[in-house]
Design goal:
- The complex is a heterodimer.
- By secondary structure, chain A is of the alpha+beta class.
- Chain A has a single domain, classed as Histidine kinase-like ATPase, C-terminal domain (Heat Shock Protein 90, 2-Layer Sandwich), CATH 3.30.565.10.
- Chain A has four helices and five strands.
- In chain A, strands 1-2-3-5-4 form a five-stranded antiparallel β-sheet, with helices on one face.
- The longest helix of chain A has 24 residues.
- Chain A is globular and about 50 Å long.
- Chain B is α/β, with parallel strands linked by helices.
- Chain B has a single domain, classed as 2-Layer Sandwich (Transcription Regulator spoIIAA), CATH 3.30.750.
- Chain B starts with a strand and ends in a 5-residue tail after the last strand.
- Classes of the chains: A alpha+beta, B alpha/beta.
Chain lengths: 144, 106
């Protein structure tokens, strides 16, 4: 089975979000991911990268942060891994809105949890672990 | 990456035409426009999404903010969202609070 891997490093600023999405979509296109799945994956990655930049680095006062991104694909799974050295944050521990909360009229809704929800629900599998001072977020999309 | 928003107001309508990619870095531009139209108390807020290629939760938060400021009496229309953006509106339940249209006025 052939595995292809592409890596990139991005400065942890909001200005990088467009480049990060482009990196994901270019890699997706090259490695055979369809446009619908590529959009969903880009959205999922964008949401977690935004959290890392805003909460993990900026609000924590950590300067010159970086996000390392590795894209890898074999015959079955397309995966993206984000590594950062910001404060530990596990998106799997965040409370995400349930069906009842999502059907509440906008006027009465509390604004929160939507980003993490979009990150987790737009890919087939989302994993998180913290290792050697790094947050490691992994997104997997089944190719078939 | 580019994002722009064009605002037109007429009668009791505020129409915002969004172009490009709406994420955390560009959502403040939309927020600025929303903050300009809120004091005019439009009864209909129209957002033309036809040229909007990407929307993250930062964009959803601005829309929720706008609806909360304008209140239940104000109607929110979205014109021609692209399929993936529409899917995000469905997934997050925003679809229940907005009217999706092909054209405005209908």
């Amino acid at each position: 089975m052939n595995t292809t891997t592409v890596s990139g490093t991005f400065t942890a600023t909001l200005d990088s979000l467009g480049s990060i999405r482009k990196f994901i979509s270019d890699s997706g296109r090259t490695l055979g991911l369809d446009s619908g799945k590529t959009y969903k994956l880009s959205l999922a990655v964008d949401e977690i990268a935004t959290n890392i930049i805003n909460h993990g680095y900026t609000e924590s006062g950590i300067k010159n942060g970086r996000i390392d991104i590795t894209v890898s694909s074999d015959d079955k799974v397309f995966s993206v891994t984000l590594e950062d050295t910001a404060v530990p944050f596990n998106p799997l521990e965040s409370k995400i809105p349930d069906e009842a909360a999502l059907s509440i009229p906008l006027e009465q809704r509390t604004i929160g949890g939507l980003g993490i929800m979009l990150a987790r629900e737009n890919v087939d599998e989302f994993r998180y672990h913290f290792s050697k001072g790094k947050n490691i977020n992994t997104f997997c999309v089944n190719l078939k | 990456m580019s994002f722009s928003v064009k605002t037109e107001t007429f009668d009791n309508v505020a129409k915002l035409t969004l172009t490009g990619e709406l994420d955390s870095s560009t959502a403040p531009q939309l927020m600025e426009e929303i903050n300009k139209v809120i004091p005019q108390r439009p009864s209909e807020l129209v957002m033309d999404f036809e040229q909007l290629d990407f929307m993250a939760s930062a964009g959803l938060r601005v829309i929720i903010f706008a609806k909360q400021k304008l209140g239940t009496a104000a109607k929110l229309f979205m014109v021609k969202p692209q399929e993936q953006v529409l899917e995000t509106l469905r997934m997050t339940g925003l679809i229940y609070s907005v009217t999706i249209v092909e054209h405005y006025p209908e």
